[in-house]
Structure formats: structure tokens, C-alpha cells
């Protein structure tokens, strides 16, 4: 449904979206969006070169949006919250406003021994262990990244001398049982997930995260461009502990790579 609402400043617009509190005037025709999960990362990403002159344009629920520019081209940075359901709302509503390229930027835990903290996983395809994507396409439909976005991310990583690992990601709706974590409240992982991490390793899956499958399914099914860059903040073959230094390294590398990739995509 096209919800008409008052834009900021009190003027009426032709099209606005409810959850993001955005409209087609305030985004200034932006066709590319960077999508972190965490609202707290939005301002940092929006002020990462080559993006400049950024300002906040909306902040509602888990959805915080800033608008910046590369040259004269507007670029959106909008947080999606954690997981597929909230991400699907952000993607759908941004597409309604004219965004055509979506690049998720976040953090991840690696499950292959040769993927290091600080590496950036460039997702080429995702295991669909989410639920939201099945509301847009049947489970047989592949969750694949657009080749333009993959190429832009790999070029940006090379230019910045950041180690990048293209490959398959596993997306889960849950952080604890779906990723076979035993440090939850109960310490119990249901039988369907017990041993699943080793199976993904055997199948050459690189990492776990929570939004890529939703983003890649939706963008492919809608005929849009989608991709995902995730900075490795822990390698679970060695440790489950995330340190502040590792978080800053992995997150920082992913943000720099994703921001530069946008300059190729526009």
C-alpha cells in the first residue's frame, strides 16, 4: 500500500513509506543504498570516504537513514535491524521509493579455518535458513548476489588492500540455535541444528550471518541488484569470544570496502 504522509517540513509528497519514515522527495532520487543492521553504524558509514556531506533524514524504530553524496550522486545509508523480517521491510520500502541497488554491510563469524579476523566476506550466494525470503520466492529459488555488486566489492577490496573472500554465506533467523551456539540461556541446540556447522564447513560455506539470504532473494526476485560485504570479527574454529579490537577491525574493513564499492556501482 502507498501510504501518503506529511514529509519533514510539513509538505505533502507523492509517495512515502510508513516504516522507514521516508518519501521520494527527501531521498533526492537516491538509487543506491548501503544497509547495515545496526542503527548505530549508520552515521559512521555515511561519513566514510568517498561518501561526504552526509546528514540524517529519518530515524524510526530500527530504521535510521542518512543521505550522503559521492560527487553529486545521492547515496542512502539505512539500517535494517537484525534479521530477515525487518530487513525485508526496509528493502521493499526502499524499492518502492526508487532504490535499485542494495549493498548490505555488516559483521560475521567465520566457520572456515582459513578465513581470518579482518577479512571481508563477499557473499556470492546464501543458504536460505531464514523465513522472510520464502514470502517472496519459493525455497527452490536461489539467493544469489548480483555480479555487478560482487565485482565492485572485490575491486574496492583490492584497491584498499583489504583481504576479501568471495563465497557462500549461511543466513539464519536466529543467532543462537540456528548457528549452533551452545552459550545460550538453555545451552541446548535442537537436534536439527546439532552438527550443522560441520556440515556447512564440508560444503565450503564461509560464514554465518542473519540478513544476506533475505536481501539476495528479494533483490533477485524483484529484478534489482543486491550484494553483501561482512567483516569477520571472530573465527569460530578457534574461539567464540569477540574482542573490541577484532570488532573494530572487521567492521572497519567492511565499511571502507562497501563505501568505496558504491562509487563503482553509481
Offer a concise description of the structure.
By secondary structure, this protein is of the alpha/beta class.
Structure characteristics:
6 helices; 27% helix; five-stranded mixed β-barrel; 266 residues; two-stranded antiparallel ribbon; Rossmann fold; disordered N terminus; alpha/beta
Helix-strand pattern: EEEHEEEHEEEHEHEHEH
Number of helices: 6
Strand order of the largest sheet: 7-11-10-8-12
The CATH architecture term is 3-Layer(aba) Sandwich
Measure the end-to-end span: 29 Å
- Globular, elongated, flat, extended or rod-shaped: what is the shape? globular
Helix content: 25-40%
Oligomer: single chain
The main pleated sheet reads as: 5 strands, mixed, barrel
CATH superfamily: Nucleoside phosphorylase domain
Mean pLDDT: 95
Q: How many domain units?
A: 1
